[in-house]
Design a protein that fits this description.
2 copies of one chain form a homodimer. Chain A is mainly alpha-helical. In chain A, about 75% of the residues lie in helices and about 0% in strands. Chain A has 12 helices and no strands. In chain A, helix 4 runs antiparallel to helix 5, helix 4 crosses helix 6 and helix 5 crosses helix 11. The longest helix of chain A is centred in the N-terminal third of the chain and has 28 residues. Chain A is elongated, with a radius of gyration of 21 Å. Chains A and B meet through helix 1, helix 6, helix 7, helix 8 and helix 9 of A and helix 1, helix 6, helix 7, helix 8 and helix 9 of B. Chain B binds a DNA duplex through helix 1 and helix 3.
Chain lengths: ~240, ~240
DNA sequence: TCAATTTCTTGACACATCGTCAAAAACATC
DNA sequence: GATGTTTTTGACGATGTGTCAAGAAATTGA
C-alpha cells in the first residue's frame, strides 16, 4: 500500500513551506536575510525541526537552486522541441531564458548568491550533483541545437572552434548581461533603458558573425519570436507586466 | 610642513596590511573566511583597532573592491591609449581584461562576492561612490573607442542601436565568461580546455556581426594582440605562467 | 621638561546566529 | 492502552560582530 499517513504528508507539505518562505527571505536580504530562527518562528515550529529537513542553511539554499534550475531546464526543453530551423529554435531558447529571468527575478537572485559565497563546502554531494545535472542538461539542450545547425549546413564553424565553444559564447553573454542588470544600475546610467532588446541584438550579431543562416538581416526574427511566444510560452508571457 | 609623524605612518601602513591580509582571507574562504577576530590577532592588534580603520566588515570588502577596480581601470587606460585603429584598440582592451583576470584571479573573486551578497546596505555612501566611479570610468573608456569607430566610419550601427548597447554586449560577454570560468568546472566538462581563446573568438564574431572593419577574417588579430602585449603589457605578460 | 589635551588602543560586554542533543511529546502498531 | 518508534522541542555551547568606557600612548604648549 502506498497511502501516505497524515503525519508524513504534513512533513512533505512543511518542506515546501520551508522552501517557499526561505526564498522570500533570501530575496529580501540575501544570504544573511535567511535566518533559521525567524524561519522557524514564522513557520510555527522550532529550529530543531528545520534541521530535520535540511542538514544546514546552505542545503536550503542549494535546494532553492535546484528548484530554480529545474524550472529553467523545463522551459529550455519546451523551447528546444519547437519545430523550426535551428536558428529559430535557438531564438526560442533565447525567449525561454529571457522570460525566465524576467518572470522569476528572485530565482535568478539565488543563483547569484550561490555562485559567489563559499557555500559548496558544507553541502552534500547528492544535492551538488543535482545542481550540476541541471546545469549540464541546459547546456546539452543548446549544444544539440548548435549541432543540428552544423549538421544541416546552416553554419560552418572554423577549424579549431567546437559547437561547445559557441554555446559557451551564448551562455556567457546571457549570464553576464542578466548579472549586470540584476546587480547594478550601470545599464540605465549607460542610457540603455530597454536592456533586453539590446541583449537580443548582441546575440544575433554574434550568430551573424559566425555566418549562421539565415542572418538576422535576412529574416524577421522579431516576428519569429512573437510567434514562439504565442506557440510555446503564451501562459508565461501573459504574466509579464512590462510587455516585451 | 607635510612630514608625517611616525605614529601616523604606522597607521597608514597598518591599513595596507589589513587589506592585504583581508584579501587573502576572502580569497581562501569567501565572505565568511574574513573573520575580524583572526584578522586582528594575526596583525597583532585588537579587534577594536580594526574598527578604527573601517566601520564594518563590509567596508573592508568594498575597500578591496576599490583597489581591484582601480587596478583594472589603469590597465584599461593604458590599453585605450594604444595608437591604432579602433578595432585594434578594442582588442587591446580585451588583452587588458584577460590579463587582469588571469593575473589576479583573487581580485576577481572579490567582485563576485560583492555582487551577490547584500553588502551594500551597511557601507558608506563615499566608498560606494568610489566603486561606481571606477565602474563608469571603465565603461567610458570602452565607449570612447566605440564612438571613435563609428566616427571613423569603420562600423555603422543600425537605427535604434547605440554605442552603449555594443559596450553592454562586450561587457556582458566578458563578465559572463569570466564568471562561468571562475565558479564552475562546466567549461572543462564542455570540452573547452582553453576557454580564453574561445572568448576572444566569440567577441570577434560579435564585432564581425556588427560589420566592424576590419573583420576578423580580414586581419590577423592574433598577431596584433601579440604586438599589443609586447608594446603595452610586457611586464604583466611575463608574470603569466600559462602562456596564452 | 612636564602637565594638559588629544588621539589611539584595548578587551570585556551585549547581542545575534548556527548547529547539537537529550529529554519530552506525538505517533504508530499490536 | 501498552509499547516501541519517530518527531519535536528548546536550552546549550560555540562562534562572530559591533560598542564603549577606561586606560595607554602620542602630541601640544608653556
Amino acid at each position: 500500500m502506498s497511502t501516505i499517513s497524515p503525519k508524513k504528508q504534513e512533513i512533505i507539505d512543511r518542506e515546501s513551506r520551508i522552501l517557499e518562505l526561505a526564498r522570500q527571505m533570501v530575496l529580501s536580504g540575501g544570504y544573511h536575510g535567511l535566518g533559521l530562527d525567524s524561519l522557524a518562528t514564522e513557520l510555527g515550529v522550532s529550529r530543531g525541526t528545520i534541521y530535520n529537513h535540511f542538514k544546514c542553511k546552505e542545503e536550503i539554499i542549494l535546494a532553492l537552486l535546484v528548484e530554480t534550475m529545474g524550472k529553467r531546464r523545463d522551459m529550455f526543453q519546451r523551447a528546444a522541441s519547437y519545430r523550426e530551423i535551428p536558428r529559430v529554435r535557438l531564438a526560442a531558447i533565447g525567449v525561454a531564458a529571457e522570460l525566465f529571468v524576467r518572470l522569476y527575478p528572485d530565482h535568478f537572485r539565488v543563483e547569484q548568491i550561490v555562485k559567489s559565497d563559499s557555500i559548496w563546502d558544507k553541502t552534500t554531494e547528492e544535492r551538488r550533483a543535482l545542481v550540476k545535472g541541471c546545469q549540464m542538461q541546459c547546456v546539452g539542450i543548446v549544444a544539440g541545437i548548435v549541432r543540428d545547425g552544423v549538421a544541416q549546413g546552416h553554419v560552418t564553424l572554423p577549424e579549431g572552434t567546437s559547437c561547445e565553444s559557441l554555446v559557451f559564447g551564448l551562455w556567457s553573454m546571457t549570464e553576464g548581461a542578466y548579472s549586470i542588470i540584476a546587480t547594478s544600475d550601470a545599464v540605465a546610467e549607460l542610457g540603455i533603458h530597454e536592456p533586453f532588446p539590446a541583449i537580443r541584438t548582441n546575440i544575433h550579431r554574434m550568430l551573424d558573425g559566425f555566418g549562421w543562416l539565415p542572418l538576422s538581416s535576412e529574416m524577421d526574427f522579431a516576428a519569429a519570436m512573437e510567434k514562439i511566444v504565442e506557440d510555446v510560452f503564451a501562459k508565461e508571457f501573459a504574466r509579464l507586466k512590462q510587455p516585451w
